[in-house]
Amino acid sequence: MFVFGWNNGPVLLGNLAGSGILSYRRSLALVAAGLLAGVFLEGPKMERSLAGGITSSTTQTVAIEVLILSFTIMLLLNILRIPVSLGNILVGAYSGASLAAQIPLNSPQILLILLSWLSVPAFSALITILIYRIVSVVVPNWSLITLDTVNRAAVLGITFYVAFAMGANNLGMVRSVLTPFQHAGIEVQAILFSSAALMGMLLFGQGISGVIGDELLALSPVGVLTAMFGGASVMLLLTQFRIPVSITQAIVGGMVGVFLTRDVRVINRRILGEILASWILVTGFAFVLALALFTAF
Amino acid sequence: MKIADLFSFGRREREVLDYVDRHLELVIRTVESFDRFLKLVGQTKWEDANSEYQTIDSLETEADNLHREGNTKIAHGAFFGGIREDILNIMEKIDSIADSAKDSAKILLEKRLDDAVASALFNSAEMTNFVRSCMNAVISLREVVRALHMNRKSVLSKVHTVENFEEEADEHKDAVRGMVSSMALKTDALSLVRLREFTTLLDNVADNAEDATDVVLILVAKGYS
């Protein structure tokens, strides 16, 4: 959870920090509230996303190996400043470790997850385009002050909403890995997960968002906020179907959606290529590494 | 920022735009005073011109103070990040208008022109048109800033007016410079150099007004797209 916070903190805190609306401390408090609300209210829906979804059950050894491996991979990629999805790593590592432990994999569920991953950016782009089209009709009629006030309120609301979606989907998914250790109640786990994630954000979470927000696309605050709203909505929707989703994939999809609606388009194709490649490579890498390590030891 | 500020519903932002408006009002008064100053120079009433310059100077100082207050207000968190920098930039450009008016007036007082030259130049239609275009550019800028209280369409429609006056000022500047060059035999070289410098500084009045509208355009493009 610590490296998860490190990796995803900027996605949650970047807009608040950039807009200068809240101090870092207050931004963290808002994100904490969102994560906790998400993991409490919607998180239980993800409890059967890995153990109970990809496999019918799991073991403590698999769970420990998956967590250690995921932590290590995320740590390395964070140090290299590469935005990466906890969902991709966990699903890859969990599938590899389970296969090595001869726990039968639920192929239709894996196929569903892979298909949803492929469609998440496109789906997110589509939703964002629809929202952005509506917003683009309304916003030009506003005065600068109205626009600023709405942006201000939207940053707060959408940051909470994205944190809520991540708490529900990603933190809920981690609880799924911990099924063999479900001694503590959801309250304790939620507080522990959120605290660890917040520590990651607090200590290191100010570097990776720049890659997405600043270097990938040149978007206005309205564009970024719409993309984040669209991405988080897709994430929450797929949470209902126990499908792990990467917020980065969803938001990048949303941003590309906004990008496609504009006459003047500025996109960093190299960065987009790197992000797309990392999604595929990281999942495959986590799978192969988990399979190899579990088989070897 | 205090929690209560989050729910100010644009109060602080309105205050900042009021500062910009008041700042611009002072700058317009400075330019109007500058216009009166030039008329006095044309009448070769140098003492009166000197006293009008004092008015320009004090108005410019007042504008400077208001500029500083406005900056402080913005620095305390009014407006969204990104827009904030643009508003600061607009205020900077507005302030430069007053600076240019003051500097161009000063240059005429530092070395007094020959009365015949001053009378011929500052009563000419070319000079009158030049000054009028510069003033109109600044007055139109106020309409652009006020349109920020309305919507994007209103802002964009008014931006072009400033650009037109700035282009007009450029054309009149060339005519005035032509006139200055034709006075080569009637005055000394230092006066000629200073008159050219004066036309450049006066042109900066319109240029800075246009620069301010360019920042408004950036602000609109960033905020509304």
Fold and architecture overview:
- The complex is a heterodimer of chains A (297) and B (225).
- Chain A is mainly alpha-helical and 297 residues long.
- Helices cover 76% and strands 0% of the residues of chain A.
- Chain A has helices spanning 2-19, 24-41, 60-79, 86-100, 107-138, 144-177, 186-204, 209-216, 221-239, 247-261, 269-296.
- The longest helix of chain A has 34 residues, at 144-177.
- Chain A starts with a helix and ends with a helix.
- Residues 208-216 of chain A have low confidence and may be disordered.
- By secondary structure, chain B is mainly alpha-helical.
- Chain B contains eight helices and no strands.
- Chain B has helices at 3-6, 11-42, 46-75, 83-110, 115-122, 125-147, 152-182, 189-224.
- In chain B, helix 6 runs antiparallel to helix 7.
- Chains A and B meet through helix 6 and helix 9 of A and helix 2 and helix 8 of B.
What are the main properties of this structure?
heterodimer, A: 297 residues, mainly alpha, 0% strand, globular, B: 225 residues, 8 helices, elongated
How many H/I helices of chain A? 11
Please give the radius of gyration of chain A in angstroms: 19 Å
- Reading the helices and strands of chain B in chain order gives HHHHHHHH
| Biggest protein-protein contact in the assembly | A-B, 27 and 26 residues
The oligomeric status of these chains comes to: heterodimer
Number of strands of chain B: 0
**Helix count, DSSP H or I runs of 4 or more residues of chain B:** 8
Helix content of chain A: over 70%
- pLDDT averaged residue by residue of chain B: 89
Largest sheet of chain B: none
Low-confidence stretches of chain B: none
Radius of gyration of chain B: 19 Å
The fraction of residues assigned to DSSP E strands of chain B is under 5%
Helix and strand string of chain A, N-terminal first?
HHHHHHHHHHH
Shape of chain A: globular
Whole-number mean pLDDT of chain A? 78
**Derived structural class of chain A:** mainly alpha
Reported for the largest beta sheet of chain A, the result is:
none
Indicate the proportion of strand residues of chain A.
under 5%
